[in-house]
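Summary for the funding panel

The consortium committed to producing paired sequence-structure records for every protein in the target list. Below we show the first two records in order, beginning with the earlier of the two.
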Amino acid sequence: METESIIQANSSKFGAGVDFSALPEDCIAGILARTSIRDACRMSTVSPEFLSAAESDALWETFLPADYREIIGRSSESSARQDFSSKKELFFRLCNSPLLIDGGKKSFWLDKESGKKCYMIAARELTIIWSETPRYWTWISPPQSRFTEVANLKIVWWFVIKGKMNTCMLSPCTNYAAYLIFQRNDIFDGFEDNPIESSIGVTGGETAKKVIYLDPEHDISPNPTRIDGWYEVELGEFFNEGRESVELEMSIMEVNTFIGKSGLLIEGIEIRPKFCSEKRKQMESESTVQATSSNFTVGIEFSALPEGCIAGILAWTSPRDVCRMSAVSLEFLSAAESDALWETFLPADYREIIGLSSESSSHLSISSKKEVFFRLCNSPLLIDGGKKSLWLDKKSGKKCYMLAARDLTITWSDTPMYWTWISLPHSRFIEVANLNQVCWLEIKGKINTGMLSSMTNYVVFLVFQRNDRFYGLKNVPVESSVGMIGGVTTKRVIYLDAPQVESSNHPDHDFGERFLQYENVISSMTGNPDPASLKKRIDGWYEVELGEFFSGEGKGKELEISVMEVKSGNWKSGLLIEGIEIRPKFCS
């Protein structure tokens, strides 16, 4: 329901989607806040608007824990951690440099991928049987430990370690795993093939038990080496709902064999998020979506959002943004291919428009809306009996048209002495107008703005070619006008041939004089036309800009376009008119 509302609002208010530059930075930051840190960093490469939002304090505040100030305040390093230039810098500092809190008895940091809280409980904060008896345990300070002291096992027969932590200190709706962090020294003994029982669970709740091994040669319970040089073994996992404050209890015990055990260094017990099983992952996603529906206090992976929701977010962007973001993640890719998304980029009346073409069956039988969109971008569709050509701008999804010469009003076009109609293989239309000779050049066209995309700035172009008989229009100003009937009309001067400067054979006719002569020609043109506005297109035709207009709300006003040269009295010849093209300004 929410996704449909977003898509409907997008379709009705912003037509075929808007560029992210049309959205406020905090709005983009709000969208990014529904993702994960990894997604936000990836999307910073999508566009300048994404980059700005991805660097904002408003976004990174959402990835920090709600109580991060209180946690930092429990550390002797709190002043240093408050000396940062941005919330993003603080976030990554908390990821890369664990913070000692509670008098050095705990270590705190953030998981870089999810922003979830991680802790290590120091050996001094654990309950280790006989740890205060030097005959069995001593406390030493190895340089490779983050804590001041670690527990050094000399010899025990009864091996018991217990730890506790309140779940309110952890991130809610998160699947955690607990690990024993340890090392073995030269007198390591008594643990070979010796099963140790570990358990983890909340007080008064379900406790998960498993068998672990601290023997490095044992395959059942591997002890991977960490980048800090310590070993770890998983004690178990649990799901922290975070709805109430309960005590989490962890234990490691071997009391059955009465074998003497020695040579172990205990740094602590680490608690960090774990990739969940599919069932747990589904529970986590549902809980996290509910927890973040009213605010963005915790970022979530896009895998936690329904595809339709992601498509609804992408529908607020442009087709270009969507194609870029499809590379961000698998979730983006899936949503970026969905019919629900590409339906929003197609004009609301695209079925009706396609129905006006003889090619309608081939376009409507396409397997996906994305394929329909790009076919309408790359293969202009002939409509209205071949008198108009329609396509979509690939960048914005806006409608573009070319009015064929047969759909224009060309004075004397039905008199073969002046104009003839010919077929050219490189034209999209069956016929183009071929100027034999006229002294009165007048071309007019009309289109109803209801056919165009609303709230769009359009530009109008005359599309033409010159043949070997071209004359009478060199350096001759031609008047063009574009405007609504009964409204404001903009007029300008155009040239169908780039202004030419007479060359000189005098040896002293240097560059400065030629430049001055060129400037005099340009300055004499009414409206200060730009010779560069005459361009050769990739389809081989030339185009010259006639003017621009704003389509407004598309209430069906009549747009009038005219091209006229009637003042010089020159005979004019050698012009081929394909039509008048109307397309969004700055379109692809």
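The next record, for a separate protein in the list, is shown here:
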Amino acid sequence: MRRSNWDNPICASVEDGLCWVCGGSASMKIVPPPEKAEIYKKMRTRIEAPASAILKRTKHPGLARLVRVDGITHTWMGEPFPFPPAVSQTSFEYTSTQSIFIQEVAELIQLNVTFLSPVTPKDIKRHSLPFSYLNVEISSLDGRPHHVQLYSDITAEWISADRSAIANWNYGVEPSSDGRSEGIAYHQIFLETQRPFAETLDQTDYGNWYYATDNMANLTYQSGAHRDVRGEFVDNGKLRNSNDSEFRAISDDYPTFGFSVDFGAVSSGVVSTVFTVGLAQEQAIQFDGEHGVVKLPSLWTSYFDTDQKALAFFHNDYAHSADTSGDLDRQIVSDANTVGGLNYSLITSLVFRQAFGTMQLTGTPEKTYLFQKEVSSADNVQTVDVMFPFFPIVLYANPTLLKFLLDPLIVNQESGRYPNKYAMHDVGKRYPNATGHPDGKDEPMPLEECGDMIIMTLAYAQRAKDNEYLTKHYKLLNQWTQYLADEALIPANQISTDDFAGPLANQTNLALKGIIGIQAMSKIAELTGNVADASNYSDIAHDYIQKWQDLGIAHDANPPHTTLSYGSNDTHVLLYNLYADRLLGLDLVPDAVYDMQSTFYPTVRSKYGVPLDTRHGYVKSDWQLWAAAVASKETRDSMIADVVAFINDTPTTRAMSDLYEGDTADFPDQLYFQDRPVQGVLQSFGVAKRIEWLKGGKGSWTR
């Protein structure tokens, strides 16, 4: 689901293999090196930026976190103005679902700050809730009593990137459903003029933002101008229990919504409080489905009557969420260590939230859709060639989620409102409008998308044991395969998923995807009882793969390798599309091709990975790990190490990029890929474990 993800990782630098800003292992803590402490200080606010609303770096950031100890105020996150002295950051660790900061205040108290964005792929009700947690635990360092007050806020900047838009707000209390507590207190913030299904600079322009905590006697609240609310806490250690009545533009004194908790004297033991943030949209997506364009509700509305009831359930569910998230974190680390070692576990733990933070569950329990935003490279909905590298992570977590992703594309095309015979590129040009392409003028990647859709559909059916799904959509799958049979062996001049590299005819790697797609359709035909089709497509695929080896391999090179395009023997390509052959168990591509590529990759390896192809020095972390998943152990381990080296050395300071220069680890010129769902491919080894590719012990791969 598209969570607010206020703890979204920002990859900056790693010392001894562990990122002190956004990374580490589930069992290791990281302290920023002294020479980089100032960089870290500048980045603290951005670590909390929501994935759907990367807040601009201005004099008035969208949040502030303060703590008052024995009458003296300190800043523990954010950059309020004026800026009280900062606390000391002593360590940081991350897991797949949590970012944990340990901070000390004047050597008197310790703050244990945990940002938790639960990912519950097998609990769809909880997974549908668009909220995240902030838990703060406080303890005395010297054993003496210290009077402690804690402050936390967000500003109206969260509700739109159009800072001239008028913000409205409310303060309220949602009563406890069981009467055992005082309920939860919340600030509700929203645009006065809602702009349904619209975004400004990738930030949504509709719905209600909430900031909530336990309603209790030692809680005070206030809304107002940022200087007034924060200044009130700095001066008095509490807030006025008042609500600003002057609705105004977001940039007009930056309306701010704060909570303060007075813990009194803290000496022995630990005291704590939990905050919740999130965006509630009753209607999530416009979708051109079976019966035309409809407004799909957020799935959580099927379980809760109001925003506030959903918010209260989530907030009161913290203990359960923390336990289940911890279990998931440990499972991911265990699986990753088993199949790829410590380096691989560092990568998978880093990208899990990034991948899942790009999705939104909609519809009803009876008909559920999962929509995905491409993020940063485009605003498309359900971009097929972005889903393709993403899908290993949902195969690992819950294959049913892949069906929920595929359905919008299939339903739209089966409706007859897409005129082309090949598979569409996406189901909508701009999120959250999944209104299709009835004119057929979506970005043309015909061979790419046909292969992707057939491969993903079979992968879902195999993992979920759902042959009925194949039968239901056989006609459309067969239509796409006929296109591949006509076009795959000798690809026309066209773009592939790596469209930033430009169009090219006779692409060796693209042809391979199409040929594997044909063989995948043979398997689909076999599983659905279409015997003649199964035999025919298998014959075509086996004929094509033999011809492909003659056309696309530089046999006389030392060492031999596949080419970027047919006949261009002085070129090479990262042959990541091999992965689908192994994933689906097709056994179409000869072992010699796998062995050949494993031997070749180290000979063209740059500092941070194997270049995508000879046109540029770009490395793609997603395709790098996909190629590694089907390489020899030695080559695999080196490719994993290269991605970790990128995380370690990159000068970029944004959510993990999947595209970077192989020699510098920086963004390529004018290509700023960040926070994209394609990092789900980095869970490809986890899928390998789940489908038992690993036969002979750690690192021993067989077919």
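Regarding this second record: The longest strand covers residues 255-266. The chain has three domains: 14-281, 445-597, 605-695+699-703.
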